[in-house]
Specification:
Layout lengths: L5 E3 L2 E3 L2 H16 L3 E2 H12 L22 E6 L2 E6 L9 H19 L8 E5 L11 E13 L7 E4 L15 E9 L2 E4 L5 E3 L2
Antiparallel strand pairs: 1-2, 3-5, 4-5, 6-7, 6-11, 7-8, 7-9, 9-10
């Protein structure tokens, strides 16, 4: 079954992080009438986790851009400033879109790892020094998820299990990653989800 496109005022809203970025851009314009076009690009790309160098479409008018459709743009001084219009509030809370995308990515890997919960035993892949070596495993104790941010000044924190991702409030500061923390071989390590699997 074909996915139904979301269209607002003739603008086709992208899915995933792109849609989250557009919804956040709208929120920025609503909360900061007169915000600079460049600030929308910078803040929305950072919040949603898009690559800054390829995300200029968020604020600059073009075939894929919401600018001049979901908000108005006016030349003021040397640059452009953006103001709400009748469509700016139509995308709602951007956190809902970011949550959906992060959960989709997380659940795929989490289920492949056996959907571990804190306290579960898991198999941990050992490092292979050559592609021709057999994959060996060791047993580990899954402690839960550690959250990391894109910004290095934010400290990593333990956040528990998958239920953490169900709280909409945790998406307020924007995109983040969660990785499993495991005790294995007598030490705590942060791994990628694909490095653990269920103990059978």
């Amino acid at each position: 079954m074909a996915k139904v496109k979301e269209v607002v005022g003739g603008y086709v809203v992208p899915g995933g992080r792109g849609g989250a970025a557009v919804a956040y851009a709208c929120q920025l314009v609503l909360q900061n009438p007169g915000i600079k076009q460049g600030d929308i690009h910078e803040l929305a790309a950072s919040w949603s986790g898009l690559n800054h160098s390829t995300a200029s479409w968020i604020g600059s008018p073009g075939p894929k851009s919401p600018a001049e459709i979901l908000w108005d743009r006016r030349k003021e001084g040397r640059g452009f400033k953006c103001y709400p219009n009748d469509l700016t509030d139509k995308l709602g809370d951007p956190r809902i879109r970011l949550q959906a995308d992060i959960l989709k990515e997380f659940d795929k890997e989490w289920k492949a790892a056996g959907s571990p919960v804190p306290g579960a035993l898991v198999n941990v892949k050992r490092v292979r020094w050559s592609a021709s070596d057999s994959q060996l495993y060791t047993t580990g104790l899954y402690l839960g998820l550690k959250r990391t941010w894109r910004r290095p000044e934010r400290k990593e924190v333990m956040v528990g299990g998958r239920e953490y991702l169900l709280d909409l409030e945790v998406y307020g500061s924007g995109t983040f990653w969660v990785n499993p923390m495991v005790i294995t071989d007598g030490r705590q390590v942060v791994l990628s989800m694909h490095e653990i699997s269920p103990v059978v």
